[in-house]
Amino acid sequence: EDEDEDEDAGDGNSGDADADDDDEGDDNVNQPANPLAAMSRAAATQMVSSRLGDRLQLPSQVAMMTDPTPAPVLSSAAKPIQTQTDPHTLQRGTSRLSRDKLRAMYADRAELTKARAVRERALQQKSHKFDHTASYVKGTCLDMCPEAERYNRASLGAGGCEGQLYMFELKPGTREMCPELCVKEYKKEAAGSSVALASELRGTPVLKKTMLYLMHRVVNWPVAELKSDTHWHDWHKFLWDRTRAVRKDINIQHICNLEAVEITEQCIRYHIVSNHVMCQIESFCDRGDTSHQNEEQMVKALRSLQMHYEDLRPQNQRFPNEPEFCAYEVYRNLSEEDTLRKVQRFPQYVQDSAEVKFAVEVYQVYNSKNYVRFFRLVRTATFCVACMLHRRFTEVRSTALEVIVRTYGTPRQMELFPMSDLAQLLAFDSNEQATTFVQRFNLSVQDNCCVLDKSSFCHPDEKIAPTRCQWIENKLAGRTLGDAVYGGKLPPYETPSVHDSFATGELDDSDYQATREEQRQAPQERRLQQQEEKQRQQQDVQKDQRQQRQQ
């Protein structure tokens, strides 16, 4: 539950993604994008909130959970509110609006939704104040992304940096927000921050829908459209961030059920698969922090999953995928001495499973440095297991090459080892990959054979970056990457409609227009109004004092 406390300073928000907006600034308008820029945030929010008045009603579903035991979350029959989508954001007629004007409209609506959030937080804190047994909040958001966050990020435009829109959230062929495709981003809570709003938290049905959408649309994104390393970086960064936000919603609401187990398992599979898919992307490997963060989140998700298993086991729950993820714990700790001792703590049916027995065999082969047997086992493993063990390939290949050179190489005569045999032995896709690898160890290649020269062999100074293996990807056997992350055949998915407060009349742009008119008043007039207001307050105070003296 405390998995997100200690994070790296740059966890996913480094802004390395391609954020160049080709058409930004083409149409300049006289008024600023945010009309309340000249005012302080507190003053602006208070002014808007007072304008809205009692018309800003909170959802009736806001409830503080008082039962310390896990309570049921949103019903599986809960569906998104079916409303007519806001014509300002979806109709093709928005082309007549300049991009700056569209962002200004989004900024106005973001301020209105923030004002509503202020009122909701006040009521929620008041309820929490008088109910000391309240422990956590039950989410009421029925969209993949809360409405306030959608408008706030749309006002910042597209680019992929923190708070901006990714290409997966835009209308096809444009740089405009598509509300149905927006997914809530991860935000690290500041120290001393208040309880999360119920309207910003997604229940179990919405979280399942979000994960299904991510696997259908983003994980299975057409490879032809990921043309550069920057696009691949955005692909991984988007999924890494959104799956992390999903797990955060689960932890904040203390959701502990089979649905939470299934969602966490899918997040773990994504981190495992992405390590192989992204291994040749420069921003993922060379910098090192991205791959480290991916590994870190996988470890935290595995820890949360084990806690779910332990919490639900007293309820006589059986988890069909528990042997698979216990085996991942073994693969992750192949170099640890107490790994087999941890295996003995698994439930008996997990220890007797084929997945854990296979993992124990891999552990023994790895520690005995039997590289031939190691790669034979990996070739028979499943796609996710092969991706999990792929991170060990460079280490095992380096050890194997050193053993081969010391065994077959002689000081007087240099032996030749066919590159085709070496490529097959060390599980390379081609002789060219094997040639590039041995040359990093200062070994030469002659007539498509490796020259085993003991005197010239040495380990490279720089770390050898791993390469994608085609034979691992062939293990998909007609399945998609989304199927592998889901753990089976993906069920059908339809893009739902989203709730829009401006289309339903809960909020109105005129509320902000009135505030904008007040801001345009001359400073002298505003000072006069403030003086008059101060005089009226003084008169009221004097009147109250006279009444008290008379009494």
Report mean pLDDT, rounded to a whole number.
78
| N-end to C-end Cα span | 59 Å
Which structural class matches the secondary elements?
A: mainly alpha
Strand content: under 5%
Model regions low in confidence, pLDDT < 50 over at least 5 residues: 4-42, 51-97
The arrangement of helices and strands along the chain is: HEHHEHHHHHHHHHHHHHEHHEEHHHHH
The biggest beta sheet is recorded as: 3 strands, antiparallel
Task: Please report the number of helical segments.
Answer: 23
Overall helicity: 40-55%
DSSP E strands, number: 5
Quaternary state, please?
single chain
Instruction: Give the overall shape, derived from the CA principal axes.
Output: elongated
Rg value: 29 Å
- Give me the side-by-side strand order of the main sheet: 3-5-4
